[in-house]
Amino acid sequence: MNNVLFAFGLTLFAGLSTGIGSALAFYTKKTNKKFLSIALGFSAGVMIYVSMIEIFVKARESLEIVYGPTKGYYITTLSFFLGIAFIAIIDKLVPSIENPHEIRDVDDMTKNEENDKALLRMGLFSAFAIAIHNFPEGLATFVSAIKDPTLGISIAFAIAIHNIPEGIAVSVPIYFATGNRKKAFLYSFLSGLAEPLGAIIGYFLLMKFLDETMFGIIFASVAGIMVYISLDELLPTAEKYGEHHIAIYGLIAGMMVMALSLLMFA
């Protein structure tokens, strides 16, 4: 039982680190569009790098164990694009926000209702994608910690590091769109709670049914979702609210930070 509580505690720590990122919105001036641009670019860099370098690779490794190198690679690739199709369909089906009275202007240069709606919608989509991403991550952290506490600690810290900019990805656009710090923190906090939720469900429901195939398909799909969100929402908005090179610098910085965090805990 102590081992189970320890594993759950690690998962909770990793998930709630999104709150550190969301808290950064509290110290950001609403008129600082350069911060918004570089933060969104940074978050996109983190998402793209971890999706293609870490999550996709882990998914492929799991599926190749079951189906072999060739078929496992095909299934991983198919699952990746199914994840993209899934979030793209949701993107089309989600209705426009119909409560403009709840949305405040960013500043004189962004007093555009459509801009604020787009920011809020992007933040909510990011929260949704990150929650989906965090769910299997929570399960992976929990299972790893049960089998090997040392390995669980390494994975939890690596996930916590990249959950910080993921918290920014949710909280900053929502804060800039609404001017509401509490709402920004709440959505970021809730997206992080998906991680311990994954651990709880994994322990009570899925431990008997989770196999390499299910794990691989879920992870590959999540990688596709994260890449779609980055390319369709984060980067276009980063460029819209700042200079092209500022967004790209943020993107590269996000990739570098994510790469270093993975190397530290490799």
Describe the structure.
This protein has 266 residues and is mainly alpha-helical. The chain contains nine helices and no strands. Helix 1 packs antiparallel against helix 7 (181-206) and helix 3 packs antiparallel against helix 6 (149-178). It is globular and about 50 Å long. The relative contact order is 0.25.
Q: Note the gap between the termini.
A: 28 Å
| Helix and strand sequence | HHHHHHHHH
Strand content: under 5%
- Tell me, briefly, the overall form: globular
- The proportion of residues forming helix, as a percent range, comes to over 70%
Any idea what the radius of gyration is? Answer: 18 Å
* Mean pLDDT over the full residue set: 78
Main sheet record: none
Structural class: mainly alpha
Residue runs with pLDDT of under 50 for 5 or more positions: 95-111
Count of the separate structural domains:
1
> Could you give the count of β-strands?
0
- Please count the helical segments: 9
